[in-house]
Amino acid sequence: MRFWDSPRKRKRVIRWSAVVLIVPIAWLAWHFSTPGNPRNANGPVIPNYVQPKRSPFTPAEKAAVHPVLASFIRDAVARGNPGKAWDVAGPDLREGFTQRQWEKGDMPVVPYPAADRGLGDWSYVKYSYTNSVGLEVFLFPRPGSGESAITADTEVVKDKQGKWYVNYWMEERSHGPPALSASQKKALQRQAKAAAAAKKARPTTRVAAPQEPPNPDSARAKGLWWIVPIGTIALIIFGPILAMLVIWLRNKREQRRVMRSA
Predict the structure, then answer these.
(1) Cα–Cα distance between 73 and 82 in angstroms, integer?
(2) How far apart are CA 224 and CA 258, in angstroms?
(3) Fold of domain 59-175
(4) pLDDT tens for residues 215-227?
(5) Higher-confidence residue: 165 or 34?
(6) Quick count: other Cβ atoms within 10 Å of Cβ 109?
């Protein structure tokens, strides 16, 4: 008895062909599937959480926040008088620190040589609630500090007496070239002129590196790389179909042979 004449063997071929076809398709679906965005994941519900009420940032509040923010930048950020900055710092910045530590400069604020230009101003308002406002502050560096202008993310909060405090401060990004003094600029100009003069004094002749002759075998291999994956996929897809077609033809031939012998 030949292999294809056995019904049980034919069933086994069809069953395993289906498995061979389904497994790579399932793997491709899993491999190219897009996972969910972790930012949109649903976390646990926070008990007793009250959504802050939105409120406009009024001109009177802006006038009150401006000197507080300017004092914080001058004394805490620029380290003009760190101990004095304790009076305008909010509870989140004070947490885990003492006033004595702030006086020594031990505080959760990264130092930055802020200039007096635009001190206490902000670029725009990110959010505004009843007792808290989020601001984006743009700071200019002092000339000769070697620092670039920066943007800082800031939050100011208001207590029950209506007094404002800086409750959060974090540098976000830098902008533009560093601020240099006149002497530093002249030194850089001298260095640039010296580098340009040294470049002109160098010989301009260059010895060309020997080039290897092109390898036709490598170019042919690069052009035929796609044969292997396409051949594998074609075998997976059309292999079971070809097997079932062979079985069907053999069954039809067997039926004709039986009918002629009958």
Answers:
(1) 10
(2) 49
(3) Nuclear Transport Factor 2; Chain: A, (3.10.450)
(4) 655 545 555 555 6
(5) 165
(6) 22
